[in-house]
C-alpha cells in the first residue's frame, strides 16, 4: 500500500512524497507554506490520481520522460522522477493511480 510522507524542506516549507508499497517515491509535491495547504495537496492528488487526463506526459531537455499530475484547475500538484523510457513513465503513472487513492499519511514533521 502506498503512503504520503510529509516532510519539511530546508526553507521551512512543507512537501509530500507519494511512496509506493516498495518505498520508492513515485510523486513529489511543490513546497507549501503551511501544513494545511500540504494536506490539501494530498487530497487533490487522491481525487485526481485516477483520471488519466490529469497526467501531463513530458520529456526533459535531456530526453528523459517524466510526468506532472495536475488538478482540475490545471495547477501542478505533483511531479515524477525522470525515467529511462516512456514505458517506465507509464508504469509510474499506473503506480500513482493504484497507490494514491487509498494511501495513508505519514507526517514526519510532527
Description:
The chain is α+β, with helices and mostly antiparallel strands. 25% of the residues lie in helices and 32% in strands. The protein has 2 helices and 7 strands, in the order E-E-E-H-E-E-E-H-E. The protein has helices at residues 35-48, 86-99, and strands spanning 3-8, 14-19, 25-28, 55-59, 65-70, 76-79, 104-107. The strands form 2 sheets. The protein has a 4-stranded mixed sheet with strand order 3-2-1-7, covered by helices on one side. Strands 4-5-6 form a 3-stranded antiparallel sheet, covered by helices on one side. The radius of gyration is 13 Å and the shape is globular. The model has no long low-confidence stretch (mean pLDDT 96).
Task: Name a few traits of the molecule.
110 residues; alpha+beta; four-stranded mixed β-sheet; three-stranded antiparallel β-sheet; 2 helices; 7 strands
Strand content: 25-35%
> How many DSSP helices?
2
Instruction: Please state the overall shape, judged from the principal axes of the Cα atoms.
Output: globular
How many DSSP-defined strands? Answer: 7
Strand order across the biggest sheet? 3-2-1-7
The main β sheet shows up as: 4 strands, mixed
Helix content class: 25-40%
Secondary-structure element series: EEEHEEEHE
Low-pLDDT residue spans: none
Radius of gyration: 13 Å
What is the assembly state of the chains in this entry? single chain
Instruction: Name the average pLDDT.
Output: 96
Organism: Flavobacterium anhuiense
Protein name: DUF1508 domain-containing protein
Pfam family, one: DUF1508
Domain DUF1508: 11-56, 61-107
